[in-house]
Amino acid sequence: MEIFLQQLVNGLTIGSIYALVALGYTMVYGVLKLINFAHGDLVALSAYVGLVIMMQLAGALSPAILIILTFLLTMAIIAIAGVILERAAYRPLRKAPRLSAVVSALGASMVIENGIMLIWGPMPRIFPASVVPNVNFDIHGVYISLMQVLVLIISFVLMVGLYFFVNKTKLGTAMRACAIDQDAARLMGIDVNRVIVTTFVIGSALGAVGGLFIGMYYRGIYFNMGWIYGLNAFVAAIIGGIGNIPGAMLGGLLLGVFNAFISGYLSSSWAMALTYVLLIVIMIFRPTGILGERVAEKV
Amino acid sequence: MNTKNIVYYGAFLLILSIIPFSLNSNWVSVMTTFLIYSVVSLSQDIVLGRAGMFDMGHAIFFGLGAYSSAILNMVFGWPIIATIPVAIILPTIASVLLAAPIIHLRGDYLLVTTIGFNIVFTQALKNNVFGITGGPNGIFGVEPLKLFGFSFSSQTSIYFLALFLLILTLIVIHNLETSKPGRALHYLNEDQLASECIGINTRFYRLYAFALSAAIAGLAGVVFTLQFSAVSPDAFNFIQSVLFFTIVLVGGPSSIPGVLLGTFFMFVVPEMFRQFAEARYLVFGIAMIVIMIFRPKGIWPAKFGRIPKYLIREE
């Protein structure tokens, strides 16, 4: 039972990181019907940017302020990077055949990945160990670290915030309208470009939080990690039903827990393969993902 | 085929056949891989460009062909020539079995599922299933192909083997273009509903496209094994599938010269700039974006006869 709960906690932690990254995929897909292959590399970039900011500010500030400042600055920088990405690689192709935009996304992914390698070198970088104090809470034999608590709480708050933003605010409503029908939304007086830019800002900023969590939780970061984390998060978005925000959250958590149980009970060398077997099985039996049937509510 | 095309293809093949005598061995090796990748990309184009299915797992069939040839040779001691039929039939069967349950998925979902298949495939190879795939390092020391007492072991002989494979593929694709299945795939790609309404069995022709392209890719896999006398899982991973996928789209879907140009641009050009080792892929990514912005239908898009402009639906 303890092993089960321990794996559940680990799985939920990784799962909420996947969910944060998956939201970026799903929101862009909802509005543009485009798989943003460069999103994973933005996540990798955010880990590097965050590390640089942390190293520059370390020592001068108390840990709590350091972490908050790092998060805010990184989110801002990655949000700007996301807007530049949209402007340079996706906007010129909005009227082109859909597959051309996919190639453009793959090109953008190559640019970011190799840009990271040129700036920070091909060797892995290590996050400092002591940013978040290494405290473990022992709850009846199940260990939860402070880092895991932070990941779970912050992800939860961000996801709830996003849910309210999309469902309760004017801009969120505009976003849902664009997801359903861009032309009709434009006729209703919605500035579609602004909505798309907002989508990229929010998606990239959430991805930046995910990237920082990856850095702080696993500590080792490398220039091409965007592929692997991006792909996993993307699978999470698909499992939940791409274009669907609660679906991405659910898919992320499901994938994280599934992964943790496979690694814990079976073997970690098969974890990745079995993750994709799960994906294939879900695709065969529920072709639009678990929550994908609400096509009209795509965002 | 009209006279103009015969002249073009003749010149193209003539240039390809004098290449091994005018370049050093390093470049002959690059050009051999170019020929093999062209064949795989042409086969990917049958599924992606002609049938319009977003298949991002084409390296599976390439890899299945390569691995079945290598395993039958190294583990079971078959001569290479005897492994060729298996290396064609096995990927064909696999493609039908894999594609049948997912063939109805629309665009992006199909893409993701094929990515999934590819990752499961490479993971299985790395984890050494049945103890015959050689794990992460793959299989080394595959015998050369022996035919009528001649052994295809020199660099040049493998090059001409690959060239022969390319010519064979070009003939198959040319025949496909002018045949009933080829037209069916074209209609299917243009408008699925309309093609169903005029009596095309879309499900059958989709599987047909997968099977044909897997057979060609499997055969290309054998030549790939022969070129390096080895196979390894990383040669068939998901990144390779992305490469074949982009080659088709950058070059021009369902256009033979487009796909060949695409392979040249995506595979040979990066080799030319090897001295700029690290920066080249950055520039390359920018080039991909720029090409798509200025030529969204590929560098050399396909033209379908003399159709008046007003009849073509612009997307």
**Helix and strand string of chain B, N-terminal first?**
HHHHHEEEHHHHEHHH
- Assign an overall shape of chain B: globular
Question: What is the arithmetic mean of pLDDT of chain B?
Answer: 87
Number of strands of chain B: 4
Structural class based on helices, strands and sheet pairing of chain B: mainly alpha
Oligomer status: heterodimer
Percent of residues in beta strands of chain B = under 5%
What order do the strands of the largest sheet of chain B run in, or round the barrel if closed? Answer: 1-4
Helix content of chain A: over 70%
Number of H- or I-type helical stretches of chain B? 12
The gist of it:
The complex is a heterodimer of chains A (299) and B (315). By secondary structure, chain A is mainly alpha-helical.
Task: Explain what you see.
The complex is a heterodimer of chains A (299) and B (315). With 299 residues, chain A is mainly alpha-helical. Helix content of chain A is 74%, strand content 4%. Chain A contains eleven helices and four strands; from the N terminus they run H-H-H-H-E-E-E-H-H-H-H-E-H-H-H. Chain A has helices at residues 2-32, 39-57, 63-90, 98-120, 146-168, 170-180, 182-187, 192-218, 225-240, 245-265, 271-285, and strands at 125-126, 136-139, 142-145, 220-221. Chain A has a two-stranded antiparallel ribbon with strand order 1-4. In chain A, strands 2-3 form a two-stranded antiparallel sheet. In chain A, helix 1 packs antiparallel against helix 8, helix 1 (2-32) crosses helix 9 and helix 2 (39-57) runs parallel beside helix 4. The longest helix of chain A is centred in the first third of the chain and has 31 residues, at 2-32. Chain A starts with a helix and ends in a 14-residue tail after the last helix. The model of chain A is unreliable at 294-299 (pLDDT under 50). By secondary structure, chain B is mainly alpha-helical. In chain B, the strands form two sheets. A two-stranded antiparallel ribbon of chain B has the order 1-4. A two-stranded antiparallel ribbon of chain B has the order 2-3. Chain B is 68% helix and 3% strand. Chain B contains twelve helices and four strands, in the order H-H-H-H-H-E-E-E-H-H-H-H-E-H-H-H. In chain B, a hairpin with a 2-residue loop joins strand 2 and strand 3 (150-152). In chain B, helix 2 (25-50) runs antiparallel to helix 11 and helix 10 (238-251) packs across helix 11. Chain B is globular, with a radius of gyration of 19 Å. Chains A and B meet through helix 4, helix 9 and helix 11 of A and helix 5, helix 10 and helix 12 of B.
